[in-house]
Amino acid sequence: MKLSVSARASAAAVVAGVTLFATAVTGSAAGAANTGTLAAAPDIPVANVKAHLTQLQSIATANGGNRAHGRAGYLASINYVKGKLDAAGFTTTVQQFTSSGSTGYNLIADWPGGDPNQIVMSGSHLDSVTSGAGINDNGSGSSAVLEIALAVSRANYQPTKHLRFAWWGAEELGLVGSRYYVNNLSATNRAKISGYLNFDMIGSPNPGYFVYDDDPTIEKTFKDYFAGIGVPTEIETEGDGRSDHAPFKSAGVPVGGLFTGASRTKTAAQVTKWGGTSGQAFDRCYHSSCDTTANISDTALDRNSDAAAYAVWTLSS
Length: 317
Fold this sequence. Notes:
alpha/beta
């Protein structure tokens, strides 16, 4: 999740220029037989999501302890995710931009098929702050979105709508990558996105279960999932407008998403609902060096990954 307004003002994010690199790939999954559109959403193995987190941690450790915009760790993160998607039969595009004097990258992955005039898009920011590896913020969302995309490939899911996944750069400098992407879409192409789902910090170690209250249909989809597993939710307010859904919302795209809390303190009432520790932040390592693989609730990561997959399948069928 990006910095507060006052903090990001000093970041002086300036966006200019674009280079698009499109890599069309072929894969056995993409060419397999159509399995229909009524398949239920798969269970997303939390072990797989955590394996991606381990890789992101290793990337940070090998590159000065972070995966921040303009640093080697961020580009290595992009290359890791892209490699997985290319091998799974996605068509990947790397979008280049400039911010604060450094080159940034967005990664877009399209699953072949589905109505190109009705796109269900899921995204997360892949960059960390400079002070740490950014495993909850936002390796958690990035790894879940990656594993959901890989689950689409494994199932050879052929939905009615077109599926697109995205990993954004320079979110921590003020939503730079996602804003650049949205601003460079034509009005026609923006109108083709029937919904954008955002996943930013979904494995907080003292978690809450928060649902964005933007688009009613998307909100209900997430709430229905959590109701089905007996987990109460609350409306997300701490990060409202502070993550990559904001540029989409401003452009008129229906948005929704999930969040498990950042620096705000968990109340006694919330502990009654969800367990955890009252009077302590949802994530005590928010934007800190201790945001490592030790800073994750496996339960929250598992539930939110499955909820995200449910929404992708439900909204695209």
